[in-house]
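Two entries, shown back to back:
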Amino acid sequence: KMEDDDNDEEDDKEHFEEIIYRKMHGYQHIVDRTTAYTIEFSMVDKTNEEYAWLKKNINKANVRVTGGIKLGRSDFQGHEFSHLILGNPKKRSLKCLYAIATGVPVVTTDYLTELNKELKKAITEKVKATIPDTTPFEIKRYATSIKKANDVYEENQKIENVDERKGLFSDYTMKFYGFDEEELHILEGLANYLGADTPKTSRMVNLNIIHPKAEDIDSKAYLKTAVSIDWFSDSIE
């Protein structure tokens, strides 16, 4: 038996309910938003004129959109969103991984220009806005993976027993090493959403995910399968 701290079992108990909550949300694809549309940004220059206009006029736009529209929170913690505008299509951010996993379209900044065009018209004419179709603006690299995520969701909806629904990482119990607290919270949430357990202790772990610059890694991590964060990201994509 591996040596563990005295408080390991208590830590896992406290962690358990949060893991179940995340997994249930992932299996059921529940999107907990207060509006129909939540626009999230990744690697978009905050001095971008279109971004600045939308941020300034979001309240005016909100009343012109059926169901409402809002911007994602400035402190991303793994919350759900309906659109991801990606400033650098060649780079894969944590938000991008969330979008892929939850079946959310990932679009270029050209979509923001088109969206604002519709919102400006609606505000000026005092009519309801039409949210543009994302298809012409979607980043092709991620489109297939996003479609697959939505297909898995549809298949899971046919399974009445939530415990029998399968996520990408359902066969894994993961532990992340070398990530800061903010990254860890997001990565664990994403892993849980996709079916993995992420206990605080290493007792039941069957896969360790190691940051490339990780230091002071528990020696027990190497007694089991250890992979880089790239494996985690590549698997989702």
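entry 2 starts here
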Amino acid sequence: VAEATEQRKAENVEYKELMASDGAAKEVLGFAKNRLNKFYNPKLYKAAPKQELTEEERIFANNGGTPPPTEAPGGIADTGVTAFAQIRVHHQLSADAAPAPPPATWGAYQTKDETSNGVISMIDLLIKDMEKEMTEAETGENEAESDYQAMMADAASKRTADSKSLTEKVGAKADLEADLQAHGDSHKATVNEMMATEKYIASLHAECDWLLQYFETRKAARADEIDSLGRAKAVLSGADYSLLQTHARGLLRRKQ
């Protein structure tokens, strides 16, 4: 966009310079044509507008005074044209180059009317060429400006769409980051819970190993404890525990 803008500015400056130079040249040619008409075609001559006198100058002239003289138009050769761009020659002759040779002979003699008509026709042709060039330049300038405005409108639309897309993507990114943070927190909590569960399972496993390791010992101790409780109960019931032991020994000997 910046490059296109700079190019458009340069083209506009070039267009204005061309229009100014061609307009000034057209005025000079028109002035020259009018001067020729003054001498060769008086009917086509257009006199310069008379100077408008102020009220004080009119009163002074009516009383017999001399009105102030009309000021010269000024500009280029008193034509009134103040701006004219000089045409630069692209291919200049070198300093050592010899000047062009003069024409071999003069052309056929022509009367003043024929000469003036030819010069005036040539001026008219030059004026038409300049008008054509100015028209083409104006058309090209309008088309270039139209294309530039269309390109700027497209660029503005694209910037609006890109800005909207960027806003949507930034919002989507923020949502995804929030979801990622939530999933990260959930994952961390799940990992902590899993570690606690594994620790609890390890403690249960250690307790079970201890129970399995001392099961027989505890079973024998429980059996002795039950036997002791039975004997204690029998003693409390009044039985002679020593006689019972002697009778049991006698039976064992008989079986043997």
